[in-house]
Structure formats: C-alpha cells, structure tokens
Design goal:
Blueprint (H helix, E strand, L loop, with lengths): L12 H24 L14 H24 L9
Keywords: Membrane, Transmembrane, Transmembrane helix
Length: 83
C-alpha cells in the first residue's frame, strides 16, 4: 500500500504567486523608502536614487554568470565515482 504524497506549502501555485507578489511589494517598498530615509554615504554615487537596488541586482546577475562559468571548470562526470 502506498501512502499519499505529502502536500507542501509551495506545491500550490497560488501560494507561489502570493509569495512573489509579497517579494515584489517589499522590493517596491524598499525603493520608495529611498526617498524618505536619509543615508550617510561615503561616495557620491551612493547618493543616487535606487543605487543599492541596482547594485544588488547587478551583483546577483554577476554571481549567477560567474557560477555558470565555474561549473564548466569544477563539474565532474556523472560516473566519476564508478571509475
């Protein structure tokens, strides 16, 4: 007899959609708070509106691109341990 498969929170597409909307709202809120909150900056480009949002996005994209290239160097074959 097989047991019914356990249903997880993010198996329901509605929950995934809700999470994505919440993340979009938080990103928008942090961008809007950039108008209100005064920051003490060290460099002039840090004072630009939305600098940290753009900086974080570019950093994440670069991290993914570098990881894709590193995979080519570090990945081993599927039968590595069988040899």
């Amino acid at each position: 007899m097989t047991e019914p498969e356990k249903k997880h929170l993010f198996d329901d597409p509605r929950n995934v959609r809700r999470l994505m909307y919440a993340l979009y709202a938080l990103c928008g809120l942090s961008l809007l708070l950039d108008f209100v909150i005064h920051r003490h900056v060290d460099h002039p480009w840090e004072a630009l509106w939305g600098f940290y949002c753009l900086y974080g996005f570019v950093a994440c994209v670069l991290l993914v691109l570098v990881a894709k290239e590193m995979r080519k160097l570090l990945m081993r074959g599927e039968d590595y341990y069988d040899e």
